[in-house]
Amino acid sequence: MSQTITLYVDGACRGNPGLGGWGAYVITEQGEHKLSGGAKLTTNNQMELTAAIEGIQFCPIDAKLIIWTDSNYVKQGITEWIHNWKKKNWKDVKNPDLWQKLDATCQNREIEWNWIKGHAGHEGNEMADQLANRGADDFLKEQNEKHSGIEKKKIEDDWLLNDPFGLDIDEEHDTEAFENDDPHSTQGQENISVQQHPHIKITPAKVDLHGPRQLILDTETTGFYFQDGDRIIEVGAVEMINRKLTGSSIHIYINPEKPVGDSVEIHGITDEFLADKPKYQEISNVLLDYLKGAEIIAHNASFDMNFLDAEFERVKLPKLSNVCEVTDTLAMAKNKHPGQKNSLDALVRRYEIPARDRTYHGALLDAEILADVYLAMTGGQVAFEMDALSQDNHSAGNNPNNIHIHADLPIIYALDAELEAHQKWIKTIAEKNGEPSIFEKLE
């Protein structure tokens, strides 16, 4: 063997499926190499596999590779499960193309596969995680730059004449005029991402949506009883507007100023890992700014809110429950599925949410999972309302038991400049056709 090379590989996905990224941190005798990439619509497992493939392909064929991954799916798949998959000719195997590519990449190589606990402070694993997220960010930036070029060409065209109904207008361009006037726009959340501490990780929204913010939130703590002095050690939340994840999230590890004790068996976060993390007073203002005004959605919400309220009170800030609405998905689940298990794991199985590795709980991971569960639990309500609203008015009027549905929808008024542009367009249409347009007749 010419040399021994150590690889840390990781994948990331925002939505699962959704925007994803992969990262490979390669340590050779000559130095370090940082590889990353992304994909528009992918899954976490696909990115984990891609990271391993790309990392291995980067290395010389005669080198001994020591690979560390926090994905049991990858580690057990390549070392154990793959033999039966081959015997069954890859029948019923998810991601067979990637598994076959990984298998081919590993041929004629000496590889030692190892599992490592994710988000536990290991430098190599943390670097791979950063690279995976960087891969997703870089991919999105590249796509946006390409999109901007297309958008610029659209603006140069006289779209008002060529496309009077706006059927080809990109949604992102169409909403730009309202960003400064809609109080619920995610525009401006990027201002929050000015990080006060290097361990505060805020991801800005990737899409501009308008409506009330919902934040699916989870915490990890040193114990179960805030009354006895247990503290928060991790906060994670993802943003949703109009039942769509915006891509914005917040993730913070916090030094609790006390030992984590036996709770390490639940979350895997050690005292050593938390030693250099910020104390609550250092991150409290940024965290409150991100959360306040939103509807907080949490599983067993009273647990998280009691801890957060206690922490904010401790640093002389308002209780979070006083500046946010709160929705408890555990209470929703118990009402929807009485007498059944309603833990997050049970709901994941019940609603067939794509599995993620939850060997240890993690706040941001659990928040992402809960977002999927919440959408699945509440999905039927949307279908019901659409069915009810589409009923024939005549039959509905004759039905004494008809259901009236009231939806509080935001009213977005046209700007003066837009009204003026509309009038100019109507006149242009009239001049072009030699008669008033249908729009002018309606007015």
TrEMBL record:
Keywords, comma-separated and alphabetical: Cytoplasm, DNA replication, DNA-directed DNA polymerase, Endonuclease, Exonuclease, Hydrolase, Magnesium, Manganese, Metal-binding, Nuclease, Nucleotidyltransferase, Transferase
Sequence positions that bind Mg(2+) 2: 10, 129
Subcellular locations according to the entry: Cytoplasm
Annotated residues for binding of a divalent metal cation: 218, 220, 366
Keyword Thylakoid among UniProt keywords: no
Cofactor note: Binds 2 divalent metal cations. Magnesium or manganese. Binds 1 Mg(2+) ion per subunit. May bind a second metal ion at a regulatory site, or after substrate binding.
GO terms, biological process: DNA replication proofreading; RNA catabolic process
SUPFAM superfamilies per the UniProt record, alphabetical: Ribonuclease H-like
Catalytic activity, as annotated: DNA(n) + a 2'-deoxyribonucleoside 5'-triphosphate = DNA(n+1) + diphosphate; Endonucleolytic cleavage to 5'-phosphomonoester
Cofactor(s) the protein requires to work: Mg(2+); Mn(2+)
Gene3D superfamilies named in the record: Ribonuclease H-like superfamily/Ribonuclease H (3.30.420.10)
GO CC term (a single one): cytosol
EC number from the UniProt entry: 3.1.26.4
A Pfam family matched in the record: RNase_T
Positions that bind Mg(2+) 1: 10, 48, 70
KW Nuclease (keyword) present: yes
Coiled-coil segments on the chain, per record: none
Oligomeric form and interacting partners: Monomer.
Record-stated family: Belongs to the RNase H family.
Protein name as it appears in the record: Ribonuclease H
Organism: Acinetobacter nectaris CIP 110549
Lineage, opening ranks: Bacteria, Pseudomonadati, Pseudomonadota, Gammaproteobacteria, Moraxellales
GN (gene name): rnhA
